[in-house]
Amino acid sequence: MDPAHFYIYEKLQPEQLRLCRFIRNGANLSAVLETFSADESPPYCALSYTWSSDHPGANDSWPLHIGEKRLPVLGSLKAFVQALRATGVLLNGTWWWIDSICINQADMQERSQQVEHMRQIYSDAHKVIVWLGPPSDDSDHALDFIHFLNGVDAARLNRETLRGILLQKKHRESWTALKHFFLRRWWSRIWTIQEFVIPSDVSFWCGPRKLARDSVFTALIMADRCGAPDFTDSPAFIHAWHRRRAWLLYKPICEPGHTSGLSLAALAAYFANNEATDDRDRLYGLYGLGTENHGLEISYALTVDEVYLRFAQSFITRHKSLDIIGFASLFVASPGSSLPSWAPDWRTKVKPFVVPLMTSQTATQYLGNLRPSTLFGDGVEPLSYSATGSRTAECSFEGYALRVQGYMIDVIDGLAGTRNSDLIQSSAEHSFESGRALSSTEILTSICRCLVLDRHDRYMRRAMPTKQFYHDFMELCILGLMPVAKGWVEPRFNEWFRFTRDLRFQGRSLADHVHNCDDGGIYPTAVQDDYIQDSFYGRFFDCVERMSLRVMTSRNGRIGMVPEKAMKGDSICLLLGCSVPLVLRVSGPKGQFTVVGECFLDGCMYGEALGPEDAPIETFHIV
């Protein structure tokens, strides 16, 4: 195409948007592009789609005529335009907002400005069309099955009856077709999440056929209720289910007077496994969903590393908090990255979890988690870790380094074994500040508290019920000592006990302490289902399996939980402005450290380890 014939966009002002309308022009498809004030635009439909396609030849651009000029248009839009033509709505005068057409992609400033308005663009749209692509061999089968699942839902059957119907052999091909439907590229893209969640009216198009968003939701719920094999544990289901969770959370926070929100950091962590062509969009693509965006600067003139570094810096500056540092232990710098150890690298793929860190606690409004919307406003006042009390961050940025104020309170000594790491035996002469040795009951209670991070529920709102959880913990440990444990104890706890039984706490192994407290009256009654989230086993499974934490002992005899990558000799520090202790590792010259991750340190989570206000404070240079 001759460059002289290319369409040249007029400058778009920050509070404006362009809309497109298709018109007849002989054999060619033409369009009109007009600029409107964002607050005074005509009714329009917005399109949600993917820029690339898996269909052969679908990525070749094609010319859209605008007046006497031509605009190269993404090949993935050609099939959508054909679908519009087939349904008779291509030339009916509808105004469309299609990002690749309505945003000058060559203008970095315009792209940045329009990203800031995505929430308004999609919330103001009269309707949003999700284009999943042309039909495939089994897409009609999948759509028919979705309608069938909606019919089954209307019957209001119990779970047992539901499983009896939906898990019949005759439906296997239907579940496979449904899996293929949710494996379409659109479901895994980061940009399409907010395009799915924000609008009030969303319609899915797959070729010429259409589906309502509620119909898709119902199909997902039916699959979850019956536990469809090879589907509910697949990426196909997980990507779609996560979108539903985000929608359920977004809907109530938009209501007047609602005080809870969605933080951009929590969203970025939860959707870490989604795909993005431009890694800056791992933050930018969720910006419209966040009610707290931590002062993120949107600029496509910045590199990926600059975006992530500035995001971490703006979080710390805005909230006077270092809680963002915990994410850096999960989202570690990718190969070739220049990011320091304290800044999360959102390119790193991490298995999503609604509460990935202790700093994701419900009580922290500016960070928080993706807890169910049913827990909003239920009257529960959530507990809060506050290892440094009410003291805020005292820090400064020196290039890529972070200088912070705090206290080094202990050093890791012993570490429980894991699937990937050997047990590291404690070697220090343990002595608590009280000067007395703890009883086996006190030590086991502390270990139990550590294994659940002193919380009753996954969303970290309520304190551990000591009597109930200690009973279940002791029961499982005692059973773990028996030869028949394999049949009575769930494999994950049995494995943990095997890895930990020889670790010494105040000179005696875990197994010795359990023997010492065994009164012979334990019977197998403990709940051992990780789906029961407010049980000891459910919390244990969250912390050990999903959060990958391991038990440790310190030189001063404290007991805690640390990341699996923690090592003997790592420092346990209280950094002002961080709600939980952090594990730091000496790196390079004296005074330089790198971040290892969060630490639960029993007896130090609520300011107990803080000295008086005039106590000597240390400066940590974190790189």
From TrEMBL:
Residues 44-195 form the Heterokaryon incompatibility domain. This is HET-domain-containing protein.
